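Suppose you are handed a protein chain with no further information: no name, no annotation, nothing but its sequence. What can you learn? This example shows the usual starting point.
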Amino acid sequence: MAKRQLRIGTRASQLALWQANWVKSELEKCYPDLEVTLVKIKTTGDKILDVPLAQVGGKGLFTKEIEEAMLKGEIEVAVHSMKDVPTYFPQGLGLRCITKREDPRDIVILRPGIKSWEELPIGGRVGTSSLRRKAMLLHSRPDLQMIDIRGNVETRIRKLTEDNLDAVVLAAAGMHRLGFTTRISEYLPVDVSLPAIGQGALGLESRIDDGETNEMIDFFNHPETAHAVIAERALLARLEGGCQVPIASYGTVDGDTLSLTGLVASVDGLQMLKKTVHGPVNTAARLGTSLADDLLIMGAGKILNEVYQRETFNAGREEV
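A reasonable first move is to predict its three-dimensional structure. Written in structure tokens, the prediction is:
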């Protein structure tokens, strides 16, 4: 008897393939009669590597083409880094599972001779393309120079030397998954660099009406992580932000209680609004929305409008 077939859509980066292969392996362990294949799909975010993401504009930079393949029936499941997943999905598609979170923190790789983040020289050059990281790190160290870097994990590690940087900031999860843990110089505390929304977790997207596939992948869902990430994403949706704006949110679960911290900052880090709330895990989405409303009352809307205007201006200037 022929094996059942399941196709997973994924980006072709080293980290994305690690993630998709992990899902493939877990599925094949759970269902020995299932044959899983990976379908590599190039997304808009993969094609544009010479411009900071904040200037590319639009949402779904790393998901749109994969979703289009799913709608055409070319794949059954998509595996995403949760931090890349927009808060809204095309009609007929949905986020079915959120996996157990890896370490959600940011890390730094320091130039040889620099012993810690706090010992970075005045005016030190720090590589990152994330407006979130830039804003928070400049809030702590306004003297630092933030240098845009793009590319996969290995490329960005290499830029420490190639671009004469003093430090590179990356996500701990990707470093761990790709076996680069020994390259980590320091883990940044969440009060210094609040993680990106969904950072460290994977999302499995599927067609809402594909009952067989949905039942097959449901075991990937990790309730504790899902509650936290649902709250984080509700805050993001309410603020109408994406990964191209300085918004951060991080949830943790202790028993039946969810603690959620939200942050909105100006790109230069001079303005920063931050608040933590607590509530039952079964109110995760409402908690995230409520926290977003609190931040808006505190002045987040004005900050975000200024960010949008600045990045739109910069994007237009790049095209000239």
